[in-house]
Design brief:
mainly alpha; 3 domains
Length: about 425
């Protein structure tokens, strides 16, 4: 057997190569480590925290930890016993002294409406309680809602550390205190409508962008460089303008007394008293979002079309094919990569759009992203907001997974 190859310093060559390779990997890792830490701190960690908040009720559990322990032993068939009411009294008294009772009032109000005023009124009258008397009777004398067993059941359910009921609410369902599931009252059902509207708008805007972007990208790909570069500047020009400014411009153009309606009236297409309603509805949302997202479809298509040799179409027509048949059989299939890349890019951006639907669409153009903002800023139901955001994130990841299975992320061409 031949001797193992060694380097000039006497080390085995295989060992030396492994050390060099390990050193290179460590150097490469150290170079990307700052970027990796930035992504973890600014992207991954906030998303995980958001997903956790949708099921996390640990703050409520910690504020009423003793009440949680004793109330879980209550079967809920009769009114709670003295062990539950007395424990809740002493913990509520401590929370009032620390000015923390407002937090539990807000969280319990998500479980059953009316808890905010109930807790606040009870907190003001805790000093009148006789600690040697019956606590349940004193609670019921404080406010008539304590006579309703559902409020005690809501307290029992509201102190659980983790739960997934916000995901049910995101689809207009609720869990009853007996564990059954049913749809919320019809007048309160809005989330499913917003989900369907959001998907409809995202798909519709994607299709509209495709219809408009395909001929634009084709023209850019076949024109001489001096003309195509000038037109490409026109395509990229919206990127140099604030999104808020562009949306505000559409508000000026689309309103009843706006530029577009004035032109239609001047041209005689519509009467002055029959001006089109293009604002605060889905029509305005479609028009504005299509214009804003159009470049994101043009660029991937252009990057693919630029690589297609013009001789392919000439060869097909020279062999007897009609221009339309040559386009359908040769040119169009070669642009699939650009179509898929542009479609997924526009769809993902459209499904989470917020500013344009809020300003142009009005109440009739509200999407799920606007509902998330409402719960974050006004209702303060962050659990429901993060549940909706989590569902939206999962939907986007599913779209990416489907795209990767059908086309492949490596084939994505973004221009």
């Amino acid at each position: 057997m031949s001797e193992a190859i060694r380097t000039s310093d006497g080390q085995l060559l295989s060992v030396k190569l492994k050390k060099v390779e390990s050193r290179r990997r460590l150097t490469a890792f150290l170079l990307v480590a700052p970027l990796l830490l930035f992504i973890l701190a600014a992207y991954i960690f906030p998303i995980l925290q958001m997903m956790t908040r949708s099921v996390d009720n640990s703050q409520m559990n910690s504020l009423l930890s003793k009440t949680f322990v004793v109330i879980q032993q209550w079967d809920g068939k009769e009114m709670p016993g003295e062990d539950v009411t007395s424990t809740f009294y002493y913990e509520l008294k401590d929370l009032v002294a620390d000015k923390q009772h407002g937090k539990i009032a807000t969280r319990l109000n998500y479980e059953k409406g009316g808890f905010t005023s109930l807790i606040k009124k009870t907190a003001r009258k805790l000093d009148t309680f006789d600690e040697s008397g019956n606590f349940l009777d004193q609670f019921m004398n404080t406010h008539k809602r304590w006579k309703d067993k559902d409020y005690w059941l809501a307290l029992k359910r509201g102190t659980v550390k983790y739960h997934g009921r916000k995901y049910l609410t995101a689809f207009d369902y609720e869990q009853k205190f007996d564990g059954s599931f049913e749809r919320i009252p019809e007048k309160k059902r809005i989330n499913v409508t917003l989900w369907l509207r959001t998907i409809f708008v995202a798909v519709g805007v994607t299709f509209s962008c495709f219809l408009l972007a395909y001929p634009i990208a084709h023209i850019l790909s076949v024109l001489p460089a001096r003309y195509s570069n000038l037109l490409m500047i026109c395509v990229l020009l919206p990127f140099w303008t604030s999104l808020l400014v562009r949306t505000s411009s559409w508000m000026v153009l689309l309103q009843k007394q706006g530029v577009l309606n004035d032109i239609l009236v001047w041209a005689g297409f519509v009467a002055d008293d029959g001006r089109l309603e293009l604002m605060h509805n889905m029509t305005g949302t479609f028009i504005a979002m299509t214009q804003i997202l159009l470049p994101f479809m043009v660029l991937p298509l252009y990057s693919v079309m630029k690589t297609i040799p013009p001789s392919l179409m000439r060869a097909a027509t020279s062999m007897g094919s009609t221009p339309f048949h040559a386009f359908r059989k040769i040119y169009f299939p070669l642009t699939y990569a650009g179509i898929s890349a542009g479609s997924i890019l526009v769809f993902v951006l459209a499904i989470g759009y917020y500013i344009t639907p809020a300003l142009v669409g009005g109440s009739k153009g509200v999407l799920i992203s606007n509902r998330i903002a409402y719960h974050m800023q006004k209702s303060l139901d962050w659990g429901l907001a993060t549940a909706m955001a989590g569902i939206l994130l999962i939907a986007v990841l599913v779209v990416y997974w489907v795209y990767n299975r059908l086309v492949g992320i490596d084939n994505m061409r973004l221009g």
